[in-house]
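Because discrete structure vocabularies remain unfamiliar, we first show an illustrative case, written as a sequence plus integers encoding its fold.
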Amino acid sequence: FLCMVDYPKVAADTAMVNGDGAHGHTEEAESKQDGNGEADGGEESNEQEVIVIQDTGFTVKIQAPGTEPFDLQVSPQEMVQEIHQVLMDREDTCHRTCFSLQLDGNVLDNFAELKSIEGLQEGSLLKVVEEPYTVREARIHVRHIRDLLKSLDPSDAYNGVDCNSLSFLSIFTDGDLGDSGKRKKKGNELEQIDCTPPEHILPGSKERPLVPLQPQNKDWKPMQCLKVLTMSGWNPPPGNRKMHGDLMYLYMVTVEERHVSITASTRGFYLNQSTTYTFNPKPANPSFLSHSLVELLSQISPAFKKNFTALQKKRVQRHPFERIATPFQVYSWTAPQVDHAMDCVRAEDAYTSRLGYEEHIPGQTRDWNEELQTTRELPRKNLPERLLRERAIFKVHSDFAAAATRGAMAVIDGNVMAINPGEETRMQMFIWNNIFFSLGFDVRDHYRELGGDAAAHAAPTNDLNGVRAYGAVDVEGLYTLGTVVVDYRGYRVTAQSIIPGILEREQEQSVIYGSIDFGKTVVSHSKYLELLEKTSRPLKVQRHSVLNEKNETVELCSSVECKGIIGNDGRHYILDLLRTFPPDLNFLPVDGEELPPESQRQGFPRQHRHRLACLRQELIEAFVEHRYLLFMKMAALQLMQQKANKDTKTDTPAITETSETISESNNGECKSPLEGKELEESIPGLAQAKELAETLVAEDGSCIDPKSREVVLNACKAVGSISNTSFDIRFNPDIFSPGVRFPDDSADDIQKQKQLLKDAAAFMVSCQVPSLVKDCLDHSALPMDGATLTEALRQRGINIRYLGSVLEFVDKTPAKTQLEHFYRIGISELITRCAKHIFKTYLQGVELSALSAAVSHFLNCFLSSFPDAVAHLPPDELVSRRKSRKRRNRVPGGGDNTAWASLTPSELWKNIASEAQSYYHFTVQCDSVDQVVEKYGLQKITLLREISIKTGIQILIKEYNFDSRHKPAFTEEDILNIFPVVKHVNPKASDAFHFFQSGQAKVQQGFLKEGCELINEALNLFNNVYGAMHVEICACLRLLARLNYIMGDHAEALSNQQKAVLMSERVLGIEHPNTIQEYMHLALYCFANGQLSTALKLLYRARYLMLMVSGEDHPEMALLDSNIGLVLHGVMEYDLSLRFLENALTINTKYHGPRSLKVALSHHLVARVYESKAEFRSALQHEKEGYTIYKNQMGEAHEKTKESSEYLKYLTQQAVALQRTMNEIYKNGSNASIMPLKFTAPSMASVLEQLNIINGIIFIPLSQKDLENLKAEVHRRQLLQELGKNEEPTEDSPLELEDKIPID
């Protein structure tokens, strides 16, 4: 249901977002091109389209049996079904599932929208009327009761089922934040805080315990309502009982140990007289017939009645975000030992092939392909239509991902019959629940020339990236398959939706476009060319010709492997998109081809495992963007020359020369990340020339005078554009594909295309890698663990196979010490990835019964200092002697060898080192885990976390002694589970995202109110598409909270940030770096709201997580410790405060350099604490350091320098006064006249002010005049920047502290 949004003047703002011809937005505008060739993309084209959906909610009264009528706020767009959902969740009506809603005696249709119901208006009374049960309704009822009983039980989250996941925030905030703030008296809160953190959180502590990761939640000690609730063995009812209305039988044991047998009949539930061994379906006396199971149980079991009521009270008190399902399953790598209780619903689910609630869907199994494609075909002319369409696409995708994951696990666990059972395991294929599964092995030597199994393993992820890219372009009429890649127990499984009719035909007949043998035979098809042509510009794919086996020219607009098949449903499908993006020549040595010198200097090309190494889409975009700037510069330079030549009346051949020289110097490289700037500053008047150039390029090259046309032509040639009149770069993905032949007449083009690929490869090495390192140096990129490091690389288009090169680059950087955190995370990522590769093959040979023994043995070899880890083989009585050799290895996960048991730690580390060398071309010097930890400063607990997350291992949460030399750290009892690692497409909410971006832009320009409105709008749209839980909603909430805070609305900031923390815990994981940052923000808002002890608890939690995820030596730790130190200073814990602030000072000095403004601020904070302790000498010393930095960086006149100098004077006076007093005491003893000294505890306001500064927040007193001034100031700054006045930015720009309105 659309949470109805009302649109303020949206159209004008969106026009800004959708890009009025700005270069960056061309793809968006194009991807929205409609099939009929006219853009309906930006709302700017037709403002009337933004339909204003009026949000006129109204209130209805609801009367349920046995309860008082209550009011419910509804909106006209809701369906009746949603009122059902509300009632099934409300505390007083949650036990009802089988009822209808009636208005004046008429039953409402469940799927009708409220606005379509006659007579339903403000104040109408809806009656809840109990309906007779059917078998389906009775099952739903039992399932619902079971869900209510388990609603506080975290076991589903630990087991990774039903999209449950963990959240611990409420333990640290003691329930809901907002209220507890009002309840406590502000004044006396100071006395009752115990501020001392646990020992392991203090700076310098070496211990890294695991148990605090999951603090004990007292709510989880479940109140037992029932001992057993299961299906009875007497099911299904015999014919004669069916005719009495019996639907099924249940068996229960109450807390009071009463064993009862219950009949579910059409009229409700009643006790019957059956026992375990005798069947007597007659009603007992009394039978307690009740319409709901809860009513029945409340009558026969007092404990049930009491505990069920208490449980529901607790359930509704929890924050909804703690219990809503996430869109995709999140797995926890640690779990406590959970008792395994009897659970009939879980048991039944496990043994039926149905997925969860799918019995609600007629026809049982879902036709995934039909659902995925139909949702794509929904209309998208205006906003409400697009929202509906995106919501449907997203929902089907998340359902499909869940089904595919479950199916893939079933396949590997051997629970699905292959469709070709006669073939050997690796070649088997499976169909389950209308999804097709294949294993990542090289079947029938398909990939033999491309690298065999290694290629077969890489192909599915490449294919998935292709599916993602084509899905994002979203061309009408072109269809891709639902694709999910699952890694589980060492196997890679690809799950795909099934093209209708493909299973009945041979592949040769069905493929009407592309090639099934890597280019030996090729066919093409006009309709496919027309459809793919629409994708060619956004995806930068060059239309090209290849030769088929008869030497005829065939035209393609994709790589040859991309196959086109028309399904029986008449849709045009494309599949095998593994070469959507062009090959990466740095990892594809080709005989007789030379790479540019930049690549060669770094030791490229390197041999890779397979020949499918592609460039990432992000790299292609960055490269094209870079070329575009170059193109503009060249055109501008030539225009200037023409002007100069006009003035001196010389001839014009000079032009072509410049273009030559530029294209040489800029052959895909930027010499240094600043190269662009220097060029501009060295040539006066370039800016105007650039504007001129832009006008030339904008007009499509037709109406320009010949001279200008020549300028554009030269510039086009120099940057490798495929058109001569405008900038347009595209790649031919078939270059360097073995087996693909090109016609002779295109030899020149092919040469150019090869050159373009070489330039792109050089661009990666000379531009993208240095820019990543530069971003880490100036802290605009701050990876904290493997996942965030990977993300930082991928955002810049750097593939993970470059990790070794990136680390080498860091190693050679002069500022290496300021990159230590990055280097350490990189090394740990590289090592755990190598270990993952080895683990994958290791697991393939392990049979199911030895799985936990094998995993614990591997972890011992990887992490334990115990030198001779010995594996425990399962005892002999479990291994049947009569194993027939013939049936061996029939299921994929059914190896039965014990080779794994012979792995030793030294052998594993040797393998890791050789894997690092061969895959990443990086030398790791190590023979054991302890050497590595010592040499690179790693933590074993961090390595454990990284390897567990990457491989899906779940371990028991307890303290592991990794360093014992006498016994191994892990036993097989410590391995609780092994989860799948799932890759899938994440469909996006495009409109919401545009709102979000324009909101961010507004905020950065200083228009806070407007920004806030846009972001609220975005939040509504996100909720509309994704439901309540999603990563992007989390970002939205965080930004909103920050804006609320800046605008002085602390309570609102707290509420939004609390949601952001909960959502981050649930969707990303309880110790994900993002969650750590959300905790820090929440602590700040708590402090501002006067909840000091909560703020400290949250900061301590963040510090604990940070220590575990990346250790103490990390720039982000300085910020965290400054926060903790300031709060402790505020509550007068001076000594403790100093420990944290001095640690922050050390880290800041290390990572920002001793002359940085951050360090000056750190000195000042430390000085303030010394002042409070009346240790003026130390205070002066620190403040002087800070003063010196301010003076050198910003000059005497700057207000920061003045402030510091004032403070120095004040400290000196205090010090002198103290000295006088001391002298007086020495001289006159007890009868000295002592001047009262001012020992001031810091005011909360001053602490808060410092907190805001270090967290980069400035307050805007929101008077209109101030706002105008601010806008003017921001505008003036932008102008300055455009005019290039600020030529040499100081090492930390002086504006850093107070003037940025930060957007995280």
